[in-house]
Amino acid sequence: MARPLLAAMFISGGINALRQAEGHAEAAKPLLDKTVGKQPESLPDQVPTDPVTLVRIDAAVKLVGGSLLAIGKLPRLSSLMLLGSLVPTTLAAHSFWEEKDSGRRQEQQIQFTKNLGLAGGLLLAAADTEGKPSVGWRARHAVRDASKQVQDTAESVQRTAGKTAGKASKKVGKAGKQAGALTGKAGKVTGKASKSVESVLSR
Fold first, then answer.
1. Taking the CB of residue 37, how many other CB atoms lie within 10 A of it?
2. Which of these, 148, 164, 168, 7, lies nearest to 74 by C-alpha position?
3. What is the DSSP-derived secondary structure letter of residue 1?
4. Could you write out the DSSP letters of every residue in 106-147?
5. CB neighbours of 57 closer than 8 A, spacing ≥ 6?
6. CB-based contacts of 60: which residues, under 8 Å, 6+ apart?
7. How far, in Å, CA of 104 to CA of 97, rounded?
8. H or E stretch covering 10
9. Tens-digit pLDDT profile for the chain (203 aa)?
10. How far apart are the first and last CA of the chain?
11. Going by C-beta distance under 8 Å and a sequence separation of 6 or more, which residues neighbour residue 13?
């Protein structure tokens, strides 16, 4: 129920802005003059600068984002859409610091604070993963699992290399013993042959 309740304000605000686009454009004009109006030449031709058009675009964002949030479709994305729409709307319509009349300033300050509360609700909705692990959590665990797998593979390779080296060392040892035995036999044969030659020569 929290999502439809949070979205209701934006849906009604979007409908109201479409019905009274000219009035909202007049309220937004001072902010637009300070931002978009200062650099119209640097903006692409496709970017609208007309206050009425911008108000209608903002109203469409509120309606689409609010409807998606209300029915639970793409709630995180729609919350960010509404948050992006809320910031310029708040600055344009509730800049209480510019009000000279104390009563009017207090009224606008209340509306500004109310919008801050809505922004907090949208941030909570944007961060809500519905019990599922967040992208950051999954990324951290994927890195940890990959690191563990690499470590296990390295240890396995080291164990295999150690076993192979041990087997090779044993084979070299056996070959050395065999070579030593052959050398000993060759020495004995040579000794016998030498004695035989000496015996023949002594006759």
1. 13
2. 7
3. -
4. HHHHHHHHHHHHHHHHHHHHHH--TTSPPHHHHHHHHHHHHH
5. 48
6. 14, 18
7. 10
8. helix 2-19
9. 889 999 999 999 999 999 999 988 888 887 777 776 666 666 666 667 788 888 999 999 999 999 999 999 999 999 999 999 999 889 888 888 888 888 999 999 999 999 999 999 999 999 988 777 766 666 787 788 888 888 888 787 788 877 776 776 677 677 667 767 777 776 676 667 666 656 656 65
10. 124
11. 59, 62, 89
| Tokens of residue 170, six digits | 């044993």
Q: Which residue type occupies 129? A: T
Q: Give the whole-angstrom CA distance, residue 169 versus residue 178.
A: 14
* Per-residue tokens: 157: 């390779």
Amino acid at the residue 161: A
**Which residue, chain included where needed, has tokens 């409807």?**
67
Distance between CA atoms of 50 and 36, rounded to whole angstroms? Answer: 10
How many CB atoms are located within 10 Å of the residue 199 CB? 9
